Amino acid sequence: MDPPRETHGKVAHMGRIVLFGATGYTGRLTAAALVARGATPVLAGRSAEALEALAVELGAGRGLDTRTADVARPETVRALVEPGDVLVTTVGPFARFGGPALRAAIDAGIAYVDSTGESPFIRAVFERHGPEAERSGASLLTAFGYDWVPGNLAGALALEEAGERASRLDIGYFFTGRGNGMSGGTRASALGVMLEPSYTYAGGAIRTERPGARVRGFEVRGRRRQAVSVGSTEAFALPRLRPALRDVDVYLGWFGGASRAMQAASLGGSLLTRAPGARAGFRALAARVAKGSTGGPDEQARASTGSHAVAIASDAAGVPLATVHVAGPNGYDLTARLLAWAATAALDGALTGPGALGPADAFGPDRLREGCAEAGLRPV
């Protein structure tokens, strides 16, 4: 990185990419992806020793800087960034740990990118924090990984192909290959999401519903696969591309033949957590059962799986007009590459404006398509 320049007798701050959570499972993959793109991220996290070891491992003469910060002390997270920086965070579960980084980015008025897939956190970013970000000049890109960029790309392409008659989108997410090993952070996030209300976009508005409210089948590589409904960024982002869009339903196909059982479990959990104090008790239990960042699949295991999303655009009568499939590498590798691409693009000034942004309106559909292709995610 070039040295700071003198401006009116003062040293001007040069923008940096700050990666918070760099030594976690997804964080390490993202740090490596950033370095592979030629970036020199500031590596941030709780353990100075672990950060220094990662800096040596990835540095290769680059002299990567490290900074310690802890969500338990939000002021240390705020101290990581200055105006002009890009803050990338992989510190989850985001419902428990994501607030300090989000707050730091809004207060500093900078670009923010995270790896969450958690519906409640996403909804809070768009509905509660988006207006704050517009006022401060911050650009918030939440869930910019396997959760939920592929469906945004497929949905945007399907809308483009379907034309003005498109009124509805149905989007499904799937793993391909052998196995679907999850990291500890993913397990913790998924368990937490099942205990909270979800949402969909129906009748031209965001509607609250329980997670797994619906099950739908999609054709993926010649096989019918089941998936359960889930709240995601598509519900907020894709109607911005086509104001006439009335319904956006997103489904997660991780559970295969157990999708109906997941739907029933979601219903049961929804009923149980209505009892006074029950939700807090289940949250505490989830925190003990799923500890968060406890590692994930190794490189060989990741190489045996891929990611796949399908978007079906239909007219008001439900007649399909266009179907688009996109496929890419394992979800964790894809997440790391997408985070790295978004961060470097944001640092280069590619973002369209402040506020809570979806992938396509953040960069424009064409540039998003190019960035996804760089990350290995392409139409098939």
Explain this structure.
This protein has 380 residues and is an alpha/beta fold. It is built from 15 helices and 18 strands. The strands form 4 sheets. Strands 5-4-3-6-7-8-17 form a 7-stranded parallel sheet, with helices on both faces. It has a 7-stranded mixed sheet with strand order 12-13-14-9-15-16-18. Helix 1 packs across helix 13 (331-347), helix 7 (149-162) crosses helix 15 (365-375) and helix 13 (331-347) crosses helix 15. The radius of gyration is 20 Å and the shape is globular.
Query: What helical percentage do the residues reach?
Result: 40-55%
Which of globular, elongated, flat, extended, rod-shaped describes the shape? globular
Helix-and-strand structural type:
alpha/beta
Mean pLDDT equals 88
Widest sheet, order of strands:
5-4-3-6-7-8-17
Query: What does the radius of gyration come to?
Result: 20 Å
Give short descriptive properties of this protein:
single chain; 380 residues; alpha/beta; seven-stranded parallel β-sheet; seven-stranded mixed β-sheet; 15 helices; globular; disordered N terminus
